[in-house]
Amino acid sequence: MLRGLIKGDNAFVPTTALRIAVRNDIDVAALLVTEQGRVRGDADIVFDGAPAHPSGAVRLSAGEDGTVWLDADLAVVEEAVTRVLVVASTEDGALRDVRGLSVEAFGPDGATVAGYEVTDAGGETAMVLAELYRRAGGWKFRAVGQGYVDGLVGLAADHGVAVPEEAPEETPEEALPEPEDTLPEPRAPKAPEALPGASKDAAPPAQFPAQVPPVPGAVPAPVPLPVPDWPYDHLFEPHTLEGSGNDVLAVEGLPPGPVLVDLAVQTEGHTAVWTLTPGNKEEDLLVNSTKKDWRGRLLAVVPLDGRLRLKLSAAGPWHARVLPLAAARRLTEDALESWGPEVLLHTGEATDVAFHYRGDSNFIVDSYVLTGHKDPAKLPESRYPYINEIGRRREALPVPSGTILVHVQRADGPWRARLKQPSAAVAWLRRVRD
Predict the structure, then answer these.
(1) Same structural domain, 136 and 251
(2) Distance CA 131, CA 83 (A)
């Protein structure tokens, strides 16, 4: 048995870097609270999903034999923080089922400076085990042992952790503009930045014709950012094509593999795009729309001969650009607004992509896991689940961790997308809210 304090006792500890061991095989967190006993925000929650406080004063790490370590450098704790709470919780069962539940603080020399063994835990599922708090210009350790039958939810509420019952998924519907009856006045796009390896003397791409506005979000692409786990390293200068009416979009000398095709059509009629086989037969239907003034970004795959050929049916002038896949727009927690088909890139942890679609026809989204894919000349198989809905929708597409291509395959209207990254508070409480 650990020899130390009993519940409610306190003792001075040195104002230095302490190591705190929490035993035994239990979830641990630290809350940095102010004089009012409340956290200032999510950053003041240190747990396995956010194991270091921004100040560097408190860090969390896992040890052996079910021990979790909290490193608390009391000399650098921010002045506004008056207490550091050591919190334990269970995912299953109650704290009375945890054998040898204890907290022990060690000084820089490895000697124990304070300790507390919990001997009276009951049906609680969360507990403030101990706290480090300021007193008389120094710091003290208190054996707290305050349990919560309502678990982390009750503990969090007592200490100012703000977690709404239903976090808003999107901006209110009326804030997203309705599809416009007419396209905005055309404006010349900004000059593009050169892609790596491009000649500085290369002529700039042609301006959009006066009657065809640029595709939203499709002004000349910036230099593509490095992408982890990425087989598609080929870069090339954008190829610009312009015309009017039905035509074949043909570009030669491209590296084999997936590319982006920005397309804008000024029309009041039907717009359709097919891929063409080497024998000039229609293959995959990429666009089939009756929307006025159609625009979007398509995903196409260049065959091994380096010749991209798309059949376009258009009742009006059009403008197209072929871009490398690395120019795909990145998904973040910030709302990304677009219209029509699009190709998006996610690199990071597993999460959901929240979509808010305001069109009245098909909204189809699929995705591709690029992590581990080695063939730069083709895409991997698309993964399930995917979104396939009609009309205005709020939908979410779960994506795994790694490098993921999110493909808005069909969309005849405006939409918004963002990553649904949980706040630290939501992530910390997720185990009791699932």
Answers:
(1) no
(2) 6
Looking at the structure of the chain, the number of domains it has is 2
Residue 207 to residues 257, 275, 297, 320, Cα–Cα distance (Å): 27, 26, 18, 11
Query: Which of 158, 182, 216 is the endpoint of a domain?
Result: 158
Does 177 reside within a domain? no
Residue 163 CB: number of other CB atoms within 10 A? 19
Note down the domain range covering 293.
227-419
First-to-last alpha carbon distance for the chain, in angstroms, is 36
Tens-of-pLDDT digits for all 434 residues of the chain? 455 899 999 999 999 999 999 999 899 999 999 999 999 888 899 998 788 998 999 999 988 788 999 999 999 999 999 999 999 999 878 999 999 999 999 999 999 999 999 999 999 999 999 999 999 999 999 999 999 998 998 999 999 987 655 444 444 444 444 433 333 333 333 333 333 333 333 333 333 333 334 444 333 444 455 677 788 988 899 999 999 999 999 999 999 999 999 999 999 999 999 999 988 899 999 999 999 999 999 999 999 999 999 999 999 999 999 999 999 999 888 889 999 999 999 988 888 899 999 999 999 999 999 999 999 999 999 988 789 999 998 888 998 888 999 999 999 999 999 887 666 666 677 554 44
Provide the strand spans (E) within 14-154. Answer: 17-23, 27-33, 45-46, 58-62, 68-73, 83-89, 102-106, 112-117, 126-135, 138-148
Say yes or no: 250 and 390 in one domain: yes
